[in-house]
Amino acid sequence: MSSTAGKLVTSRSELNIEDYLPSGSSIEEPRGKLRLLDLIDISPTLTEAAGAIIDDSFTRCFKSNPPEPWNWNIYLFPLWCFGVVVRYCILFPLRCLTLAFGWFIFLSTFIPVHSLLKGQDKLRKNIEVELDSLFLLCLHCRVLVEMICSFFVGSWTGVVKYHGPRPSIRPKQVYVANHTSMIDFIVLEQMTAFAVIMQKHPGWVGLLQSTILESVGCIWFNRSEAKDREIVARKLRDHVQGADNNPLLIFPEGTCVNNNYTVMFKKGAFELGCTVCPIAIKYNKIFVDAFWNSRKQSFTMHLLQLMTSWAVVCEVWYLEPQTIRPGETAIEFAERVRDMISLRAGLKKVPWDGYLKYSRPSSKHSERKQQSFAESLLARLEEK
């Protein structure tokens, strides 16, 4: 019995593809022709290309995962229809009224204060002499901005749970957080009036940036303007030195990521020579995906999507402040803080620069790949 098994094993190990061909056939081809085996010899290039398509970890950072359909039978479909009616015909109008009421209170109080701070030069000089009055006006602006952000969160039926001590106004400190949507700023701002570093937006968002948010010390920039980087860097250094300035908030990823991953942190926030306070933000996608894909959706439509959902559920962790260690570079410091945020929020780290989202691959890189592939193929053919 054992000898028979041994023969079977031996015969199986000696089988090859020619055993399965019709009698008289062979896989050998005349010399000079390219065989499948020759293509396999250049498989490293093909494997790299296939791997880039199958495991594209960069593109996955900026894709929203559509919810699984659950209204797939006659029993669940009526419940889904009932939910649509409730969300669009009852909750959405109530949320619009809530937000409109908040704007009414905010504008009726903010416009007089803003007029005093942005009025005539002579009036501003008189106010600046009275430091106590100026401080009270600024404090009033902070409270109003926190209030309108609270109304925004209420218009989504936001359920936000905060962990850790509330941020305070201190010099030489900066707060950094992972970035999923522009609503990250609203969620954080309703607790503390941060001065945020943000891309300048057009439309009604840009109007709010240049009027309301500017009153709390926010700083704007354009990615297309190289000079803006130097200006922003100088404003950052000046802001963190002020004892009465609002806490500085930076999203070092530089772009919105889908709350499943974290991309590389820009080192600018970690070169200021001040304490870095990490903030981890994690959204629960049970009711709605809070990720904002700015290339496919305007911010207005993004807000409408949130306002027509059941609720926005979110957790925020204020983590332990960090300082740069002796011998540690700004890049290493940024990676260490990214590790803390990723671990706390349960996000996966990927070694990508988020700004690649806004640029096309270099033509030189594509040409080098093409040249390498052509050389491999020609070398194989010349051997024949």
Automatic annotation (TrEMBL):
> Origin, by domain of life?
Eukaryota
What is this protein's record name?
A: Phospholipid/glycerol acyltransferase domain-containing protein
Q: What does the record give as the organism's lineage?
A: Eukaryota, Viridiplantae, Streptophyta, Embryophyta, Tracheophyta
InterPro entries per record: LPCAT1-like, Plipid/glycerol_acylTrfase
A Pfam family reported for this protein in Swiss-Prot or TrEMBL: Acyltransferase
Q: What is its main location?
A: membrane
Q: Which residues form the signal peptide?
A: none
Q: Which UniProt keywords apply?
A: Acyltransferase, Lipid biosynthesis, Lipid metabolism, Membrane, Phospholipid biosynthesis, Phospholipid metabolism, Transferase, Transmembrane, Transmembrane helix
Looking at the UniProt entry, the stretches that span the membrane are 72-90, 97-114, 134-160
Q: In which pathway does it act?
A: Lipid metabolism
Q: Which family does it belong to?
A: Belongs to the 1-acyl-sn-glycerol-3-phosphate acyltransferase family.
- Give the Phospholipid/glycerol acyltransferase domain ranges: 173-284
Q: Does the keyword DNA-binding apply?
A: no
Q: Does the keyword Transferase apply?
A: yes
* SUPFAM superfamilies in UniProt: Glycerol-3-phosphate (1)-acyltransferase
Q: Where in the cell is it found?
A: Membrane
